[in-house]
Amino acid sequence: MRRFPRGGRTALAATVLTLSLALAAGTQAATAAPDGTAPAADSVQQYEVSDVVSAGDRTTLARTGTAIDEVRAETVVITADAAHAERLTDLGYHLTALTGPVERGDVRVAAPEDYHTYDETLAAVAEAEAAYPDLVSSQVIGQSHEGRDIVAVKISANVTVDEDEPEVLFTHNQHAREHLTVEMALYTLTELTSQYGTDTEITTLLDSREVWIVPSVNPDGKVYDQESGSFRSWRKNRQPNEGSSAVGTDLNRNWAYEWGCCGGSSGSPGSDTYRGSGPESGTETAVVADFVRGRTVDGEQQITAHIDFHTYGELVLWPYGYTYDETGPGLTADDAAAFQALGGELADTNGYTPQQSSDLYVTDGSINDWAWADQGIFSYTFEMYPSSGAGGGFYPPGDVIERETSRNREAVVTLLSYADCVYRAAGLESEYCAS
């Protein structure tokens, strides 16, 4: 299996242009032109929105149906088409357009071919399964809206037997344009298999844990964003919305806990944070949710810990996202202490910033909130590299892929080590962990 990414790409810098307010009506389309000029008025691009300082400010902005890409000290970065940018301006926000990546000397932009395609990802899984038949087994858990297979990969010693062991789930690529997360899935698959029998810690963990990896939750969106020859900055799935010409549901606002409760998603099909027509109305959400529910054996959920990988921001996030409160229904002070303790420990391994999800802004219908409240799974989101758009935003250059996936090796191992009882991270083993 190919372990290293193709292509050599270095980091890029965003430059700022003044936004003209003479914008025509926009539609969702591609990124900037190859020469670095601002995209046409019918395309999407990133904007910096000024005077958005607090979590409350960011939540207010998000409630307009705006997807926030990056949080800065007193501003945020968003992706919007011309019509949405003009709407925000009419609401009193000050926007500054950011140009797309450009080539300057030896600085080259990320290209779609830097990342595994959907078909290449499945081929890599099949190659690992053939090379390590005693460790790896894959299964199709359902199909996307357009009929592509959604695959779950199991890694464990004695992989063909469903043993009574703690299970850990890693999900990737809920948002189409976040291709680095698929590379993270393939890195984890490679590292766990190649190091079994060689690395004592990994060997011990795979002897006592079952690991599940879903490399692409949103294959239709991935293909649409990547395989036209240029990136489209597409976020949602590709499911049509009845009564609207707008396509797609934000899968990470479509989960069936506090769905649409709190202004943390949009009811407009044209929004990048459209929550769908109902909980689990997104084809892919329902597939993965059914898979997770199916891991309940004799009334007990076998999956104990989970990371949902996203880009970008270099963050470790935990529930709840729908409320600013640290505790809530089904989330006690001890639960919150365990989330925080393990979240901090995970962040210590990779240099990310640990925080409750709503410290950024309120979201509802997220996978983390659902996994904890509905299934009792200690569920985290990792926002991977870069920390800002200067590192490539959603499309970091290909030559950072190996570095930024391996950066999370210890976090993966740490989560596996606590899968038997996460409360141990907070010193609560006597109350919650069996001897």
TrEMBL record:
Residues 1-32 form the signal peptide. The active site is at 383 (proton donor/acceptor). CDD domains: M14_CPT. InterPro entries: CARBOXYPEPT_ZN_1, Carboxypeptidase_T, Peptidase_M14. Residues 224-247 are annotated as: Disordered. The keyword Metal-binding applies. Residues 114-419 form the Peptidase M14 domain. This is M14 family metallopeptidase.
